[in-house]
Specification:
69% of the residues lie in helices and 0% in strands. It is mainly alpha-helical. The protein is globular.
């Protein structure tokens, strides 16, 4: 998971991919919860409205699953 988070920090264009993987990880992604919350707090998360909407959807799915 650290590799995923590091790739996101190095290149924000990987956000969709990183969050999709975290979503697939289920509860094992719990250590990444601060990163997911920070992603949602950004004023804009994607290069397009569609990408931003998808990121928001994935972040919310992760947050609903994690304690």
């Amino acid at each position: 998971m650290q590799t995923l988070l590091a790739s996101r920090e190095e290149n924000d264009a990987t956000s969709n991919y990183v969050l999709a993987w975290l979503n697939r990880m289920g509860v094992a992604a719990a250590p990444a919860l601060p990163r997911v919350q920070a992603e949602l707090a950004l004023p804009r998360r994607g290069r397009s409205i569609a990408a931003d909407g998808e990121l928001q959807r994935i972040c919310r799915a992760i947050l609903m699953r994690l304690p």
